[in-house]
Amino acid sequence: MISICREKLIKAGVPQTRAQVIESDITEFDLNQTFDLIIAPFRVFQNLETDQEVDGLFKCIRKHLSPNGTCILNVFRSFREPDELQKLWATTEENLDWEIPVEGGRLACYSRRAYMDIEKLILYPELIYRKYEGETLVEESILKIVMRCYYPATFEKLIVEHGYTILNR
Length: 169
Prior knowledge:
This protein is α+β, with helices and mostly antiparallel strands and 169 residues long. The protein has two domains: 2-77 and 151-161, Vaccinia Virus protein VP39 (Rossmann fold, 3-Layer(aba) Sandwich), CATH 3.40.50; 82-144. The chain contains four helices and nine strands; from the N terminus they run αβαβαβββββββα. It has helices at residues 2-11, 51-64, 82-89, 152-161; strands spanning 35-40, 65-73, 91-102, 105-113, 116-117, 122-123, 126-133, 136-144, 147-148. It has a four-stranded antiparallel β-sheet with strand order 3-4-7-8, with helices on one face. A three-stranded antiparallel β-sheet has the order 5-6-9, with no helix packed on it. A two-stranded parallel ribbon has the order 1-2. Strand 1 (35-40), helix 2 (51-64) and strand 2 form a beta-alpha-beta unit.
């Protein structure tokens, strides 16, 4: 994905002074510059499993955010209480999330949600990608992810404790 992004930037004629592609750990990086706007899209914040990782991200934001800059953090909000969430979430069954035709067969994505740490509100889903030729499975890849849940009051407290002011939500 990184090489494809670089190729697209070059094809579009975007100079490196305007956009760069850098691969780094979101909890520990230094770009030696500041920005007026920092965005953490696609719930990336919720993929930080430990408090140390969360602290690291906030430190990186602090290091890179200009004095009057804005940071946007995208997170989903559960409308269920933790015990209800655990009951509905945890299952060893695989669920078909989507399937698309590809040349010579199909590609399917299944999810499995076998475990949730109820105390820390961390979900541990697995995304299982399977490629089929006809009905024959020819390739499988399992992506194990972490998804930490935050309720609004807890999330707001976390942001304020790290020295930030909430402008909007």
